[in-house]
Amino acid sequence: MSIQWDSLPKVHQAIAKSGLSQADQERLIRLIEILSFSDREQDSDDALDVHAFLSTFQQQARELDTLRHLSSKLTASLDLKMVLKAVAGEAMRLIQNAKNVNIFLYDAEADRLDFGLAMDENGTHNQPFSQPRPNGLTFTVAHKRQIVTVENMSASPLFQNAPETWKGSIIGIPLTIGEKVVGVMNISRSITGNFSDSELRLLNLLAEQAAIAISNARLHTLLNRQAYTDPITGLPNRRALDEHLESEIQQARRTLRNFAVIMMDLDHFKEINDTYGHYVGDQILRATFNYLAQHLRSTDFLSRFGGDELTLVLSDVDLSAAVSVCKKVNEAFSDYHVQLPDGKRTKIGISGGIAVYPLHGRTARDLLRAADEALYRAKRSTRGTFVVAQPLTDNHSTMYGPTS
Q: Which of 25, 111, 126, 372 is deepest in the core (most CB within 10 A)?
């Protein structure tokens, strides 16, 4: 295929009006001139359709630009919500007449779709526009691992018994890495009809980049969770506690409010560990710590400090409120028993030390030290009790236990 020599000025004019960048225009002109010189002697009937050539080049340039843009935008963050928001935003941008986007994360082992993010022209939403149905579009895409296009929702078996307001067309796109589906993205339009080849190519580019970005973000979330989680109990670990305490101190300084730090450990746990071994000890720790967590508020922060020691952080409480919480913990453990491998049942108690910001300390280190010293006095005096730390300018402590 050749380009007629006398048509080159028209080609230059068309390229100048194409909207391409200056660099792309220069590259295209050089390419066309090379083609024209190499093929000048060919029959004119085989002349290249300049406008078709230019249109194809523009489309390919747009797809390359889109790929560069997606790669840059979707790798800018490892936060899953930010990644999903970027993916949905790009989908709304790429498809004309787009009405909304739903993204679901897929767990193949459980065959479960978890909501990721929804977006329409008004912005993002924290709940899906509709829940996936077993025989609906989203599960069909996940199971078949291929794009499913519905030109008219009102006439599709996939949308039987759907609300009358569900009109227009929709496309479901699997987000895959190799053979693994990590998610499904649905994009609906206000108009009926098929999606163009150009739109399908762009959506495929988006889906490939989105799958990688989502997979990386989920891995980052998992690793981050593991870094802040005690592997035996599933509770936040010491690292998580340290960061949480710093956050509490900053908030307390801003709001001039109190918070409490309570150090606790299990009574007579060492004897169980020594008699039955660490495996049994770990099981008892997990069960006991989870039992304690069930008796706390959702806003309370319970972490494993080390061994059989726990740290409880109570936000926005004064000393009397902290003491009240500790009395409830004592009540919960008043008749708590665990089953041992040899069939015996033994009682597990709990003791603790209470420190309140800023009465007993103004730094995380001082609060932990004050609470730990109060715990030591409780263990030495009467097990199964909670002792309030000594104020910074005082030398006495108060004990709270089952009989207080």
A: 372
Sheet holding 148-150, edge to edge: 123-125, 112-120, 98-107, 180-189, 170-177, 148-150
User: Rounded CA gap, 76 and 189, in Å?
Assistant: 28
Structure letter (DSSP) for residue 159: G
What confidence category does residue 343 fall into, taking pLDDT thresholds of 50, 70 and 90?
Answer: confident
Quickly state the pLDDT bin for 49 (edges 50, 70, 90): low
Residue 75 lies in a domain: no
The structure tokens listed for 47 are 């002349």
User: What is the maximum span of the chain, computed from C-alpha positions, in angstroms?
Assistant: 108
| Structural domain boundaries, residue 377 | 238-400
Looking at this protein, which amino acid is placed at residue 204? Answer: N
Whether residue 284 lies inside any domain: the answer is yes
Which of 162, 193, 227 is the endpoint of a domain? 227
Single-letter amino acid, residue 12:
H
134 and 57 in a single domain? The answer is no
- Report the relative pairing of strands 349-357 and 386-388 from DSSP bridges: parallel
* Same domain (yes/no): 243, 379: yes
How far apart are alpha carbons 297 and 321 in whole angstroms?
13
Structure tokens at 85: 């928001």
